[in-house]
Design goal:
about 190 residues, five-stranded antiparallel sheet, 10 strands, five-stranded mixed sheet, Immunoglobulin-like, elongated
Length: about 190
């Protein structure tokens, strides 16, 4: 009976020590990660933000996405106030025929829209091609630059607009461009 009591006491003490030590390890593991988050420099925070945006499919001016038919890039975006409470956003878009078999492509299936990430407002855009011939039959290896116009009603929070481009013939997987500096170009 004495040996059973000794073994039970020893097991209880050993279990208590193991539990206490494992709680200290968990606490020690959690605390350093909090310190790492708080000690990021502004440059590191900016890099982390850029990585998160890249993972979400967010592109910036000059960055392109390539599908089977098109290579698409947004070169610039501007805002022009038309009257009180409304305006026009114009985006300059470059589309390249990326076929390698000599096939021409039409840009008519391309769809353009902007969306305000904060208000969830969506506005459909209209392409304003300079060269209608190239727009309807873009030769292989050639590119065309044109404006896309969006009439918007709400002019607040211009910094939250993203431009989406898609096509039923050549879908782009959630690629969208951040329209930067729209409020600085107000007239």
């Amino acid at each position: 009976m004495k040996s059973f009591l000794k073994v039970t006491c020893a097991a209880f003490i050993l279990t208590s020590l193991m539990t206490a030590c494992s709680e200290e390890k968990e606490t020690a593991q959690v605390e350093p990660s909090k310190e790492v988050e708080n000690t990021l420099s502004p440059e590191e925070q900016q890099q982390q933000l850029e990585i998160e945006e890249l993972e979400k499919g967010i592109l910036f001016y000059g960055e392109n996405v390539k599908g089977g038919d098109y290579g698409v890039s947004v070169l610039d975006g501007t805002y022009e106030k038309t009257n009180e409470g409304s305006g026009t956003i114009k985006a300059q878009v470059e589309v390249k025929n990326v076929h390698d078999d000599g096939t021409g492509v039409t840009l008519l299936p391309l769809e353009f829209w902007i969306e305000n990430e904060k208000t969830n407002q969506k506005f459909i855009g209209k392409a304003l091609p300079n060269d209608a011939q190239k727009f309807t039959n873009l030769p292989q290896g050639h590119s065309v630059v044109f404006d896309v116009s969006f009439s918007i009603k709400a002019t607040e929070e211009l910094e939250n607009f993203y431009l989406y481009i898609d096509s039923k013939n050549d879908p782009f997987a959630n690629a969208h461009w951040k329209l930067d500096n729209l409020d600085s170009s107000q007239s």
